[in-house]
Amino acid sequence: MSQSDQSIPAPAVRPAWEPSGHRDPIRITDVKAICTAPDGIRLVIVKVETSDAGLYGLGCATFTQRPLAVVTAIEQYLKPFLIGRDPDDIEDIWQAGFVSSYWRSGPVLNNALSGVDEALWDIKGKRAGMPVYQLFGGKSRRAADVYVHANGKDLAELDDSIIALRERGFRHIRCQMSVPGYATYGTGDKQETAKGAQPTPSYRLSISQDAWEPRPYCQLVVKMFEHVRSKFGEEIELLHDIHERVPPIMAIQLAKDLERFHLFFLEDVFAPEDQDYLRMLRAQTSTPIAMGELYVNPHEYVPVIRDRLIDFIRVHISDIGGLTPARKLAALSEYFGVRTAWHGPGDTSPVGHAANLQLDLSTSNFGIQEAHLFGERTREVFPGCPEIRDGAMWSNDKPGLGIDIDEAQAARYPFPEHPINGAWPEIRRRDGTVIKP
Ligand code: MG
Q1: Is the CB of residue 115 less than 8 Å from the CB of residue 130?
Q2: All domains of the chain, ordered by start, with CATH?
Q3: Is 185 a catalytic residue?
């Protein structure tokens, strides 16, 4: 049969394998990208609507540094690709959507695909009358232990932050502290600069107090954990994120220096581009290693699992394409002793956190979930936002992902004005050299 044969139906919205007599399928009727920033963080949510009146699904497509590129991928490419398909065909739609661009596995297209994929799991759960974790095999635990972020400009502030979190029941705490005079990641000051504030023109190729230097940071982190362990003892689980900022051999030295503090994990010791150093690191220290929030491609994450080079896989689920690839990644990891620790900061939307939770609850090799304590406005926009109490994230056990979006509320919080549309300004060394963020 030739391509020009008029008998070939076009477009191929009904897979060839679909048996006759199949129940009358529902169809995808609309795909929308909803942009909202209730707490100032740019979020993108996909809403997939169906021919079954009132039945829709939500998915997270948040790539907060390039959200408008994701919106274009959803509205201009995935929407026409999806209209008319059966939302039950999650695997088939994921595989077809993945290759429909031919070039694939980048963060923009993966996020767009994730928004659709998670929405389809939401729809399937609603149709089944079950939470999505039931479709994944059911609960392996009552709730998902979370870690939260403590930070401070000095040890006293860090202590206060840890004490406040412990009083709220948190048992796993990430510690980050300002390096005096430097633009330190995760301390609540320069992180905000990176995520939303005005980029500083004087940053460019000038000596600035906002510069970053690796050695003062490495020295300070060891002192910080010496202090925290002596003050809070061994009962508290401690984590730290290097955020790929340190030259690889210095990061190996730091991982060795921190070994005696028995961290729960040390995160992003290297940039993905430098991950061949993991083999060298593993030969020298038993500090548990978490990697992966920057991974977007199986070529990055499969080898480090297969070769047992990490202890926690930490991808940002929307950045690898949604729940469909993430559940396969969790299953692969189980066979290599790698536990899950899905990326879960504020720029994973509440819908993304609800999706993370489905895997956290159903995955045997769950390790920990990063939590973000969303503000009141975000919780109003997203009814059903997962609840955090007693140091864990809990499901509301509603069908699907268990979360909704109030579109009228969402519309009240458009993306904030920003000179570079929310993109991250560069981080530089004292001499002006750009470094990884
Ligand atoms: Mg991180």
Answers
A1: no
A2: 12-130 (3.30.390.10), 135-399 (3.20.20.120)
A3: yes
